[in-house]
Amino acid sequence: MVLRQALLPRLLACLLVLLAGCSSAGDGGGAPAWADGMPTVQEADLPAEAQRTLDLIDSGGPFPYEQDGAVFGNFEGLLPQQRRGHYHEYTVKTPGSADRGARRIVTGRDGETYYTEDHYASFTAVLG
Q: What mean pLDDT value characterizes the chain?
């Protein structure tokens, strides 16, 4: 019984440490690990066209461009290194552009979402 009483405070302290480390980006606890070291943006603060692209991704399409959903190779090395096929890219329409423009959403298999407005020269992690 004395041993149990001595362990209880330690167990509670460990539980509190674990819970403190499990905050999500949405509750003010900071960015998720996949976004460490990157600029971040809230989804609601993205351009309207990017928000529409995210809605299409969530609903599974249909997508306006044949290339949408293609594997993104991360050849620039700006996103965390993953196996080929982990990332997929989607076009974000650019008003006034005669072609696909430079804006893209890149998603990862583990729920990561990134936005680029300069055709992969830089990325911003999108937080929900």
A: 83
Q: Which residues are part of the catalytic machinery?
A: 89, 119
CB 102 within 8 A of CB 118: yes
What's the whole-model pTM score?
A: 0.76
Q: What is the mean pLDDT of residues 91-113?
A: 95
pLDDT given at position 67: 96
Contacts of 97 (CB under 8 A, 6+ apart): none
By the 10 Å C-beta count (0-12 exposed, 13-18 middle, 19+ buried), 93 is classed as middle
DSSP string, the chain: -HHHHHHHHHHHHHHHHHHHTT--GGGTS---GGGTTS-EEEGGGS-HHHHHHHHHHHHT---SSTTTTEEP--TT--SPP--TTSEEEEE---TT-SSS-S-EEEEETTS-EEEESSTTS--EEEE-
